[in-house]
Specification:
four-stranded antiparallel sheet; 6 strands; Cytochrome Bc1 Complex, Chain D, domain 2; elongated; single chain; 46% helix; 11 helices
């Protein structure tokens, strides 16, 4: 009897261990069959992020988005503010259409589609007399088809359009007739005819490098706008405008679209470099530190020479007259 009990005492735990082992083998085999090929499952570590199948899915909407990015930035060179060179994390689409692109330096956005109807009405009231109701242009004004929202927003937002007269050699900057929102509404309608880049830029200035911006400004901008950004006369009645009151968006739009006689900087300035230039203009040029006294508008030796003649030579003449009157 004792020998039988001893035998049963060891047999029962052994049977249990065999049953547990068989159950574990069956559960692991069924899990391996149910799991997708190549997928692994591990116990999550506290505070760690679990990644499962991190490869992005290529959906029909994603494919349409990439095709739209190529279409609106057709043959755009690198570093041109085009969606073709956008950082994937900043590429946004809606119903297969690109609505935002860019990177950490500049984000380009298209005006909302809800602006199109109001923009059409504003265009008919303010622009169609010269550009025609279809925006195809006329002998008095160029076509606006395919120019991109940034171009339209710049010209309207700076007050250059609507123009006071078509007889001007260069459209003059004046207080804008339309608000910022109305400018984007007009841009939204024109862009709906033939969507194109560049979109309206939002410049992120927090990580800008002012030293690099100063160097880039000196190399690319001072020939026309002067080192102080005061602007200067050019040839045949044209001029480079002052940058003393330009907003960050307007400076970036001008660089990417090339309004008037200004060249379009595409392919030679990255978004980070454009951001550095914008930061230098809006911070250092518009808010200079005049350690030597009065800045005199930052227009250079002309103003300084005028002050020297008026107060220097004029003061000497007054002193000379006083001495002559005393000695007579």
């Amino acid at each position: 009897m004792i020998r039988r009990l001893t035998r049963n005492r060891f047999a029962l735990p052994a049977a249990l261990l065999v049953a547990v082992a068989l159950g574990s083998i069956l559960s692991l085999s069924s899990a391996a069959q149910a799991a997708p090929r190549g997928a692994t499952h591990a116990a999550p570590t506290p505070g760690a992020t679990r990644f499962v199948n991190t490869k992005p899915r290529v959906t029909p909407h994603a494919t349409a988005c990439l095709r739209d990015a190529e279409r609106i930035g057709y043959k755009s060179p690198p570093d041109s503010g085009s969606p073709q060179n956008s950082t994937p994390a900043y590429l946004r689409c809606s119903h297969g259409k690109v609505v935002q692109y860019g990177d950490t330096a500049i984000t380009y956005r298209v005006p909302p589609s809800s602006y199109i109807a109001a923009g059409h009405k504003l265009f008919e009231e303010n622009c169609s007399s010269c550009h025609l109701p279809t925006a195809q242009g006329s002998a008095a004004a160029p076509s606006l088809i395919g120019v991109g929202p940034a171009t339209v927003d710049f010209w309207v937002n700076t007050g250059r359009m609507p123009a006071a007269t078509t007889l001007q050699v260069q459209a003059k900057q004046k207080p804008p007739r339309l608000t910022d929102k109305q400018a984007e509404e007009v841009a939204a309608w024109i862009n709906s005819l033939t969507p194109s880049a560049p979109y309206i830029p939002d410049v992120h200035l927090k990580k800008a490098n002012l030293a690099k911006g100063a160097t880039l400004f000196a190399l690319n901008c001072t020939a026309c706008h002067t080192i102080t950004g005061a602007g200067d006369e050019l040839a045949y009645g044209t001029y480079a405008p002052s940058l003393h009151f330009a907003t960050a968006t307007q400076v970036a739009e001008a660089i990417r679209t090339g309004p008037g006689n200004m060249p379009r900087f595409t392919g030679n300035l990255s978004d980070a470099q454009v951001r550095d230039i914008v930061a230098y203009v809006t911070e250092k040029i518009q808010h200079p530190t005049n350690r030597g006294g009065f800045g005199l508008g930052g227009v250079g030796p002309v103003a300084e020479g005028f002050v020297a003649l008026l107060f220097g030579v004029g003061g000497l003449m007054l002193v000379s007259f006083w001495i002559g009157d005393r000695s007579s």
